[in-house]
């Protein structure tokens, strides 16, 4: 695999970053994951915009313009011959020559790393036909989940807790309400209404979320952006998640309780179809 690091395209085993990199020592960095369908990027503009915001919130210098970022994404897709898959992009505050809590001097170059992950069958996923099982876990993450930082220890532990419980993922709960999934936004459907948590510092503002809600409204579906509980979710007619790597994925069980008929719901399945179809059309 060819990866990108700080201006160079290199075989993955030759790509290196410093042991003093702030991303490595302090999780001082941000990332984006953009999906690829038919060799094209899904919602690149959305990801570029959120990346700029994450960087700005953390006062990390934006290392290049969006056009240059797009070129790197495309170059990696071409060099690695990606038809369906993901592109991971990470920018950290860079590598000063020692460890220090104080931010390094302004002229420290951010570290930029991108690599591809080939995922044949991303669009025609078997999981979309059976649906996922989720468990609930407390949300003990920090208070700025709207910034897409590389601080993913708890989400990673959450997936392990789900796996240990025989489930696929975990929904996180704070003050009695679902915030989001470990790496996705969470939704329930009540009759004809789609309910998903309102935006704020408590959740990541999903790029897929924004697109799916737009498509839902265009298809005359009702959308309510508000908090909901696990009990309300267990009583819902449907549940699902969204993310760049799963698109729209039905959820059929929450903490052992079957949702609806225990099979992917009509709304989630329809939204998945619309999302994939429209995203393909608009892909770059
Ligand atoms: N919420 C969290 C915590 C995430 O990590 C992600 C994606 O990685 C999402 C939501 C979904 O965001 P997007 O649709 O932009 O992939």
Automatic annotation (TrEMBL):
Enzyme class per UniProt: transferase
Cofactor: pyridoxal 5'-phosphate
Catalytic activity: L-isoleucine + 2-oxoglutarate = (S)-3-methyl-2-oxopentanoate + L-glutamate; L-valine + 2-oxoglutarate = 3-methyl-2-oxobutanoate + L-glutamate; L-leucine + 2-oxoglutarate = 4-methyl-2-oxopentanoate + L-glutamate
Molecular-function annotations in GO: branched-chain-amino-acid transaminase activity
GO process annotations (BP): amino acid biosynthetic process; branched-chain amino acid biosynthetic process
Pathway in which this enzyme or protein is active: Amino-acid biosynthesis; L-leucine biosynthesis; L-leucine from 3-methyl-2-oxobutanoate: step 4/4; Amino-acid biosynthesis; L-isoleucine biosynthesis; L-isoleucine from 2-oxobutanoate: step 4/4; Amino-acid biosynthesis; L-valine biosynthesis; L-valine from pyruvate: step 4/4
EC number of the protein: 2.6.1.42
Keywords: Amino-acid biosynthesis, Aminotransferase, Branched-chain amino acid biosynthesis, Pyridoxal phosphate, Transferase
PROSITE patterns registered for this protein in UniProt: AA_TRANSFER_CLASS_4
GO CC terms, sorted: cytosol
Keyword Hydrolase: no
Highest taxon of the lineage: Bacteria
Primary role: Acts on leucine, isoleucine and valine.
Similarity comment: Belongs to the class-IV pyridoxal-phosphate-dependent aminotransferase family.
Matches recorded under NCBIfam families: PRK06680.1
Name of the featured protein: Probable branched-chain-amino-acid aminotransferase
């Amino acid at each position: 695999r060819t990866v990108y690091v700080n201006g160079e395209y290199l075989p993955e085993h030759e790509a290196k970053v410093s042991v003093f990199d702030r991303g490595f020592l302090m999780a001082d960095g941000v990332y984006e994951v953009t999906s690829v369908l038919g060799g094209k990027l899904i919602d690149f503009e959305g990801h570029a915009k959120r990346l700029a915001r994450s960087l700005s919130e953390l006062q990390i210098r934006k290392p290049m313009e969006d056009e240059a970022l797009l070129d790197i994404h495309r170059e990696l897709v071409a060099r690695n011959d990606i038809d369906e898959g993901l592109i991971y992009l990470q920018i950290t505050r860079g590598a000063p020559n020692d460890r220090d809590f104080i931010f390094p001097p302004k002229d420290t170059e951010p570290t930029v790393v991108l690599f591809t992950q080939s995922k044949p069958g991303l669009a025609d996923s078997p999981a979309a036909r059976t649906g996922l099982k989720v468990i609930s876990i407390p949300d003990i993450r920090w208070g700025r989940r709207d910034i897409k930082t590389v601080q993913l220890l708890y989400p990673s532990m959450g997936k392990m807790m789900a796996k240990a419980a025989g489930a696929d993922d975990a929904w996180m709960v704070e003050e009695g309400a679902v915030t989001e999934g470990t790496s996705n936004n969470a939704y329930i459907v009540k009759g004809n209404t789609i309910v998903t948590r309102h935006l704020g510092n408590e959740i990541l503002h999903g790029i897929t979320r924004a697109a799916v809600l737009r498509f839902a409204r265009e298809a005359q579906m009702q959308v309510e952006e508000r908090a909901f509980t696990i009990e309300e979710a267990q009583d819902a007619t449907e549940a699902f998640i969204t993310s760049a790597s799963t698109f729209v994925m039905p959820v059929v069980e929450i903490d052992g309780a079957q949702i609806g008929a225990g099979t992917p719901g009509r709304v989630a399945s329809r939204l998945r179809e619309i999302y994939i179809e429209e995203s393909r059309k608009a892909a770059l």
